[in-house]
Amino acid sequence: MFAAGIIESGANTFLLLIAVKHFTAGAGAKAFIAGAGSFGLLLSPVAVSFVQRRRWSATVAVSRFLMVGCGCCALMAAVPRLWLYVPACLIAMAVQSAIIPLMTETYHHNYPAESRGKLYARSFVLRIMGALLFAWAGGRFLDWQPELFPLLLLCFAVAFAGAAWCARRIPSVPLEDNGAAHPLHALRFVREDRVFRQTLIVWMFMGFANLMMLPMRVEYLGNPAHGLARSAAEIAFLTGVVPNLARLVMNPVWGWLFDRMNFFALRIVLNCGFALGILAFFTSDTTAGLITGAIIYGISTAGGDVAWGLWVTKFAPPGRVADYMGVHTFLTGIRGIAAPVVAFQMVQHFALSSLGWFSAILIVIATLLLLPEVNRDKARRKGEVLTEEVTD
Q: In terms of pTM, does the model score above 0.85?
């Protein structure tokens, strides 16, 4: 998990920051880098199907995919050219996202249902610490010796290798092969499961808004066109250190709430937090305002880590957790690829504060769509309790 946090800091801050500061990349290249992780999510059902057909255990597959990311980062460090940097970023960040359904299956296999959120959050603290420490150290290093950015890329390669070594030692079982003819077979669950379908629709609105503004944080702080032009250390502090400190403190709380709280009510609270964090960050040009927005965003992200990573374990039938998560990550990949492209195009015509308001409106729509599900879920759970009492 600690190594995964270092990789996360690269995905969220440094790879895009290097593109902006060192390569002076254009909108297209920045959008590709910002959407690289989402491209991996888009391919996650393919990865799950690939692993199922080969009857690999989930963690053996994860280890092999991570070594691909290791090779890409080492190649970027050895040949620091934009023409290689962009596709290598794309592949490295794609493989670390494509493995998410396999890791969700691993959590489902190893963590008991009644304490899954708490245990997941507890282990995730190590990931947050890795992201936090590397964001602080990496930002200071780039300010001190910006021309030595390939050393950061080597650090990411080592982190990929370390994560692969650890993953291979986690207990797991081969994924069940259902004999489907194509890798997107799990999309049928969207049609068959109404609650799953409704939740995915809601997540599309909220996720598009959040993913649209996520890479804009680096753009807003680093591009002189927006009037701030903060240093690399300041950018890493505001996009990596501050939100990750908030995540570190609040992650165990959200894990505890995930095990006990109505999931849809939890999602509504998180939506409100993301909307407030976006507005606070992108409508401010003062350090205090930016820190406030980063803290709110970090608190919400702590809950989002748990909810996004585990929610399918509450709804998926036995043996179908990886498939359900694959559908979820596939749709996340669609919006994750589209959102940065839309954002980088819109920012050429609108102020970032306007984009912030637009994102907040999308999140409000998502929240309104969730309200009926809260009552339905309460009624369903009440019915289950009454049935159990009658049976007893």
A: no
